[in-house]
Design goal:
5 strands; 39% helix
Length: 170
Amino acid sequence: SYGSAAMLNWVVKQKYIEPHIPVWEKSTDKPGLFARSDFTWDKESDCYYCPTGKPLLSRQRNFKKSSSPVTKANTIIYRSSQINCRICKLKSQCCPNTTFKKITRSIYGESRDVAREIGKTQKYQQSRKDRKKVEVLFAYLKRIMNFDRLRLRGITGAHDEFLMAATVQN
């Protein structure tokens, strides 16, 4: 679960590590429709802006009893106004089958944004190449040499067992 939102948040916010980890993108972009990246995130106002500049808000109105906008899946749902969507020229490219646009953002979205920005750098591309060399060896140990679990107990047992397997592999 390297690229999960919770893992990225732990790496960025708690351990202060620059994440050279690919971000899991669960949303699939459909051809001919606007992608999530076409919508602009504004941290200060806590909303998305559509390509025409209209806001997508997590709360459309204020209630007497306030509740958390966070769902059970640890996301916040941002919705556009039906009125804005109804008169929009780009509705067929945005939300052709619904009356409004809906975008979900993880509560760990800030950490995911950090990882996405790092993913665009040359340094990240190099670390991906380097990591692949090592991960291929681990995959070989697990699949071909059937090293799927440790049989010795404790840290020293695990160290010894892994050292023996790596020696055999080498």
